[in-house]
Amino acid sequence: MTAPLVTRVSKADSAAIAEAVRVLEAGGLVAFPTETVYGLGADATNGQAVARLYEAKGRPAFNPLIAHVVGLEAARLLARFSADAARLAETFWPGPLTLVLPRTVACPVADLATAGLDSIAVRVPSHAVARAILEAFAKPVVAPSANRSGHVSPTAAAHVLADLGGRIELIVDGGATPVGVESTIVACLDEPVMLRPGGVAREAIERALAKPLAQRSAEFTRAADGAPLAPGMLVSHYAPRTPLRLDAVGVADGEALLAFGPILPDRHARAVRVLNLSQAGDLIEAAANLFSHLRALDGAGVKTIAVMPIPHHGLGEAINDRLTRAAAPR
Ligand code: TXA
Ligand code: MG
After folding, report:
1. Mean per-residue pLDDT for 44-62?
2. Cα–chain-centroid distance for residue 47?
3. Same-domain status, 106 and 187
4. Is the CB of residue 200 below 6 angstroms from any atom belonging to ligand 1?
5. What is the per-residue pLDDT across 66-87, written as a single tens digit (0 to 9) for each?
6. How far apart are CA 304 and CA 219, in angstroms?
7. Among 12, 116, 163, 263, which residue has the least CB neighbours within 10 Å?
C-alpha cells in the first residue's frame, strides 16, 4: 500500500488547471468534474499511473477504463470508428456518451487501462473544466468515477474528498456536475449495442442511428445463463490461449515463466522465456506489466505459462483475480 497523501482541493481556475496537468504528467491522480460525475484522472499512457488509480479506488478487479479526449480527431488515434460510431460521435460529442470501439494498432493507451482487451472505451466530455485539462494535457486521460469501489458516483468535490481524501494528489472543484448520472455506453464493435444506460437516452441514440440498438450479446456477459450483470462487468475479458499454471514453485521443460520478485523458483533456467512482473516485488509495477507480459508470453509458442505466487494484498487481489480467470478452463 502507498503512504497517505495530502489531497489538495483547488477551485477550478487557470492555476488549478495548470496544477492538474503537472500532477498528471508526474503520474499522479487528479479528480475533476465532467458534465456527468466527477472523474478520477490519470495519464492513460502511463501504466504505473493507471495501476495507482486502481489502487486508490480500491477496485478488487481491473475493470477497463474510459479514455477521455478533447475531440473526435484525438479519439481516432485511439479507436477505429464504424459509420455508426462516427454518426454517434458527431451527434453527441462533446457530451455524456461513451463509445466502445476496436483499438487502433498504434493506440498509446496502457494495456492495463483497457484490461488487455482489443477494444477501448472513448469519451469526449463537454464540461469546461474537463475540457481545459484535456486540452492542456494533450494526451488521453483515463477517468473512472471518482469514488471508492462500491460507493456511488460523486457529483460534488466534497463527495470525492470524503471517499478519496489521502489517496489522490488533487481535486479540482468545479461545483456540482450538471447531468449527475454516468455517460451512456454504446459498443460499436459490430451492430451498436447499449452496455450502460446514462446521460443520453436510448431513444435519442436510436433516432441518430435511424435504427434500434441491438440486444446485448453474450460477448458482454459473464454469466453462463446470460443473466444481466452489474455495469462494471458488462465486458468480455482478455484471456490468453496458452494455459496458465498458477502458484508455480518450479518450472518444467517447455514452460514460460511469469515471475514476481527478486527470487526465481527452482529450475527457472529451464524456462523457454522469463518475464518478471516486478523484480522489486512492487505490486503497482506488477499491475502495470500484467497484460503486456501475459500477451508476450502467450505469443511465445510455449505449452504452459508458469506463474509465480503473487501476494494477495493491495493490487495483488486484482492481479490474482485476473490470473485466476485467465487460468480457468475454457
Ligand atoms: O460518465 C462517465 O462515464 C464517468 C465520467 C468520469 O466520465 N466515468 C465512468 O467510468 O463512469 P467508470 O470506470 O466508472 O465506468 C466505465 C464503464 C465500466 O462499467 C467498464 O466496464 C466499461 O465502462 N468499459 C470500459 N471499457 C470497456 C470495454 N472495452 N468494453 C466494455 N465495457 C467497457
Ligand atoms: Mg463507476
Report:
1. 92
2. 10
3. yes
4. no
5. 999 999 999 999 999 999 999 9
6. 26
7. 263
The finding on whether 181 has its CB within 6 A of some atom of ligand 1 is no
| Share in percent of the chain as helix, strand, coil (round to 5) | 30, 20, 50
* Domain boundary residue, one of 220, 254, 283: 220
State yes or no: cis peptide before 178, omega within 30 of 0. Answer: no
Chosen domain end from 220, 235, 252: 220
**Whole domain around residue 268: which residue ranges?**
244-327
Contact criterion met (CB below 8 Å) for 259 and 308 = yes
Shared domain for 47 and 153, answered yes or no, is yes
* 186 touches ligand 1 (CB under 6 Å): no
* Model pLDDT, residue 99: 98
Q: What is the CATH number of the domain that holds 265?
A: 3.40.50.11030
Q: Does the beta carbon of 142 lie inside 6 Å of ligand 1?
A: no
CATH number at residue 137: 3.90.870.10
Same domain, 189 and 65: yes
Ligand closest to the CA atom of residue 181: 1
In a 10 Å sphere around its CB, with 0-12 CB exposed, 13-18 middle and 19+ buried, how is residue 207 labelled? exposed
| Whether residue 191 is found in the same domain as residue 46 | yes
- pTM confidence score: 0.89
d(Cα 158, Cα 177) in Å, to the nearest integer?
12
* Residue closest by Cα to atom 32 of ligand 1: 235
Element (H, E) at 83: helix 83-92
322 domain residue, yes or no = yes
User: Do 53 and 125 fall within a single domain?
Assistant: yes
Inter-CA distances, 328 with 50, 116, 239, 299, Å: 26, 17, 9, 19
